[in-house]
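Q: Sequence in, structure out?
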Amino acid sequence: MSKRSLILASCLTLLLGAHAATAAVDREMLLKDPGVFGTFAVFKLDGDWGKLDKAARQSAAASVKDVFQKHADKVTTDVYLLRGLSETADFFIRIHSTEMVNNQNFLVDIMATPMGKYLQNTHTFNGITKKTNYVPGFPDELKTALKTPPDAGAKPYAIVVPVRKDAEWWLMPVEARGAMMKEHTEASIAYLKTVKRKLYHATGLSDLDFITYFETAKLDDFNNLILSLEQVKENRHNKQFGNPLLLGTIRPLDEVLELLSR
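A: Exactly. Output:
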């Protein structure tokens, strides 16, 4: 190989490596940083889907994979199976990007696929991640407790709880809301190691105020967490908690498509 070819090959390798590294960093950033838009799109397959022969279902499902690949440079996605745990939906997709239009374009393309023609979009929640509002005012020992890392290992269950607050909550002084959120946080400390939580602010972006997202391997701990949160004063101001509540399992895209194509 000539010296020039070696240089070109080296440059190409560096470029490809940089691209791969950027893609990995982007996903980590989108899942952790504030100012990121999150969309939860919930789908149910209609009755005509089951009337197709298996080969046709598999071919239609394959078209969905192309959309995920097409938008991989703009959005990061996670797929969850609801079938068997919900009578109203089969799966949902969680999409993150720095611009809401990227989430929209991804979903428009999903609905335009051969499989998309059989999908009913039963619910869509939109929100944005932000820096914590109340934590800066918490005592130091509570701030330290909040830094407790989650247990290692897979957390196969995901739960999404949409929340709306009543008008009294928003008219309340910030200090009063902060005191209630301190009590709320204290009630959740015991479950930080087994239940991961992520909060999305949805006011003005959905008919909600918050979208709370959880991952866990211990549904009994999640059940106890919610029971604890129902006993704090802040819960009196929840006008909507769930309705719908989504309980699903985190699965690879290929596995979800295969299960839905049976």
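The radius of gyration is 21 Å.
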